[in-house]
Amino acid sequence: MASRPSMPTLNDKSARPPSFCLLGPRSGTVDSTSWSVHDPCMAVKTITIDLEAYEALARRKKAGQSFSKVIKEHFGRPKTGRDLRRVLRDVVVSEDALSAIERQIEERRRDQARPARL
User: Fold this and answer.
1) Any idea what the Cα angle at residue 83 is, between residues 78 and 88, rounded to 5°?
2) CA 5, 9, 13, 16: dihedral to nearest 10 degrees?
3) How far apart are CA 27 and CA 34, in angstroms?
4) Rg (Cα) of the chain, in Å, rounded?
5) Is the Cα dihedral 74, 76, 77, 80 positive or negative?
6) Of 33, 35, 10, nearest to 24 (Cα)?
7) Which residues is 34 bridged to in the sheet?
8) Half-sphere exposure of 59 (CA within 13 A, CB side)
9) Max Cα separation, the chain?
């Protein structure tokens, strides 16, 4: 009978890549048939989504990007006035654009909206 190859243990640093936890089945051991690799600093939750939702995520996912990143980009923290101020610092508005804005404001002053007569 062939002997079973020795299995690495959690203390065997040569058996796992740096900065990853390699956890086996629920028993907490590492075995050669089932390895789960997760970043040790990130909690992981499993969710169930329907095919339509998966396809929507997959369409927005770029090469090398995780689904978590796609979700965070879409549903990240709410934007604040501070975020707007940071973006506006880099905005350059041309003189032509400013003139067009002023013309639009003047047109609206001359032709103000009035309530409908019922």
Assistant:
1) 140
2) 70
3) 12
4) 28
5) negative
6) 35
7) 31
8) 6
9) 96
- Residue recorded with tokens 């990143």: 69
Task: Tell me which DSSP letter residue 59 carries.
Answer: H
Nearest to 19 by CA among 32, 36, 43, 37: 37
pLDDT tens for 44-87 read 889 999 999 999 999 999 999 999 999 988 888 888 999 999 99
DSSP 19-47: T-EEE-STTS--BTTB-EEE-TTS-----
CA–CA distance, 43 with 28 (Å, rounded to integer): 17
Residue 91: both structure tokens together:
């905005």
Pull the structure tokens for residue 109. 């002053």
Per-residue pLDDT tens for 8-39? 554 544 544 444 444 444 445 555 454 455 45
Distance (Å, rounded) from C-alpha 22 to C-alpha 14?
A: 12
Cα-based torsion angle of the residue sequence 23, 24, 26, 28 in order, rounded to the nearest 10 degrees: -60
